[in-house]
Structure formats: structure tokens, C-alpha cells
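Here is one chain, start to finish.
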Amino acid sequence: MRSRPWAASLALTLASFLAMPAEAEVRLDVAAASDLKFAMDELVAAFAKSRPDVTVQVTYGSSGNFFSQISNGAPFDMFFSADIDYPRRLQQAGLALPGSEFAYAVGRIVLWVPRTSPLRVERGLEVLKAPEVRHVAIANPKHAPYGRAAEAALRSLGVYDAVKDKLVLGENVAQTAQFVQTGAADAGMIALSLAIAPALSGEGRYWEVPLDAYPRMEQGGIILRRTKNAAGAHAFRDFVLGPQGRAVLTRYGFFLPGQ
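Its structure:
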């Protein structure tokens, strides 16, 4: 029996289709300020439900260190900074996609002590003058925006000179919280977003530092020019800035841009 040309052609087409590799999954490598740790983890999980084709991998650290790394070619697709000035400087240096800069939140700082601490944290920063307070943790002001905010608050509220010799510096605000958790510091000035996160809220008590005690902490980000996944990066940015993303950020104590 003769084979039919169209049947042979169909079989070849099907074989070719089945041999084609599946569409590659899009991966985004994101550098994010450590104050975002718990909020960003939740944002990534929520985004994955609507865009399972895009995998978001986040590295947390200090914004200043990320700025230096990205300036020297670190392979990130996006940068979420605790200080919007860093993304703006990268944009000006031509390292970001044109027009990709965005503001996403306004940070807040608190004085945080272990739940079992005898310190009356409701007294505010004055409590840090007590002789039983030997170490006070803040993030390193040289490269961590939350460290700069903490130092500014200590100065503006008149306690810096009394506590400057007690200061221990964390690499970032998350490590600052770890110093308090582990007993390496008696108190710490950390991000509100960390203090109220489920993972830490049961371990400590906090007092919110008045907003007028430190410069407004405008937080922002960019999509980097080197990304090979611009569409996925724009989709994640739009999700963070959309209703679901804004709700998560608000729940973690951030103000939104314009508030």
C-alpha cells in the first residue's frame, strides 16, 4: 500500500512540534533593600500566582552596597532601594531602562527591644541613656538609608552624644534586628516593616520614632538596562505599584508615595 504524501508530511510536522523545547521560563534577579524582606517575600508569592511564567529571585542587602555593585556590573534585572536617590543616580549614569524609575513606598523607623527587656520603650530614645543599655544597634549610616535615618533621629532628639559610644553597626537593617534578637545589642533602631512582620512581631516591642525626627525616607526602584527580561520586569513593577502590591506594603507599615 502506498504511503500518502500528506500523511507523511503531517507526521513530520507533529514530530518537529514535539521536539521543540518548551518556552523558557523568565527569571528576574532582584536586588532589594533588607527592610523589604518580609513584604517582598509576600509580593513575590502573590505575583507568582498571576504570572507563573515569571520567577522572581530576590537578594536582600543594604541599598548603598547594591548601588556600588550595580555600578560595577552586578547582574541584576531590578533594584528596589530604601533611598530613591540611588536608583536616580543609576538612571543618570545610563544603567537603567529609560523611564523605568519608580517610587513605591515611604519608610518608617522604630526603636525596638526584645519582648522580655525591662526597658520602657514607650519613653522613646531617652531610654537609651540608661546605664544598663550597653549596646544600641543601628544600620551602618555609610551605606544603609535606615542607618542614616537612625543617626539623624538620635541627633535631632538630642541623645546622640550620650549613646554614640554604645552604637554597634549592622551591615543592613535586617542584621541590625538580628543583633537585638541574639542579645548582641540591648536595643536597635530598625524598620517598622520588620518590627511588625509576623516573624518578628512576637519577639519584640517597639516605639515609633516621630516622622519629623529624620528626613523623609522615599523608597524607589528601577529596571536595569542590562535586563534580558524587560517585559517580565515591567510586569512585576506594575504589580508592586498596583492595588495588590500597595495593600501589602501598607500592611507592613509603609506609607505610599504622596501620603
